[in-house]
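Many introductory courses stop at the sequence. We go one step further.
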Amino acid sequence: MVVPVKRYPPGYGVVEPVADYRPWDVDTAFRDIYHAVTAHTKVDIYRCYALWRYAAQTAALQGDLLEVGVWRGGSAAVLAAALRHFGVTDKTIYLADTFCGVVKAGPRDDYYKGGEHADASADTVHELFARLEIDHYRLLCGVFPDQTAHQIPAGTTFSFCHVDVDVYQSARDACDWVWPRLTPGGMVVYDDYGFYGCEGVTAAGNEEFARPDRIVTHNLNGQCVLVRISP
C-alpha cells in the first residue's frame, strides 16, 4: 500500500527543533499532574509544560486566570496545579466552554465548521477537579464572552489567559474581551496558532504583531504568546 504524502500549503510544514534540553522530563511536580490529566486534554506535553511555566511566571501579578476552550479540563488543571505548587492560593481560575463543540466558525477557518470537540461535559471537568482536589475555579457554560462573561464579577482583572478555541472569531472575541482586563505583564496564549487546520487562529495571532501595547512571539510548540507591556 502506498501512503500518500501530506501536502502542506505555503507556510506550513513539519517543525523539527534541534534543542536538547527537556525540563519537563525532570520536573516531577509537572509530570505528576500531566500524567493525571492526559485523558482530559488534547494539548501535548510541550505546550502543557509551557502553560505550567507561564502560570508560575505570572502568579505574582494581580489578577485571576481565564481559559476559554476547556474541553475535558486537562490544561486548566495544569494551570491550577501550577498555582498550587508555587504557593498561590488567592486566585480564581475561570473556565469557559460551550460543551457543545466549536462555535463561531467562519470564512477564515478552513477545517472547522462548528460542533467539533463536543465530546466533553461540565460534569467531566468537575469530576477531574474534585479528584485533583482543586476548588478555586468557576465554570462558565456557554459561548464566551457573549453568553457567560457577565458571570465574572465587574472589576475582575487577569494575569493569564489561555485561548484554545480553534477558530478565528472565537479567538478574536476572547482576546479582545480579556485584554482591557489584563494586568501589565500579564499573558495571553493562543493554543492553536501554529497548526495546520487552524488557519483562522493563525490569522488572529498574526494581527497581534501590529499592536503597540504588547510583545508577541511564536514559540516552536505552536503557541502564540502575548505579553501586555502598557496599561
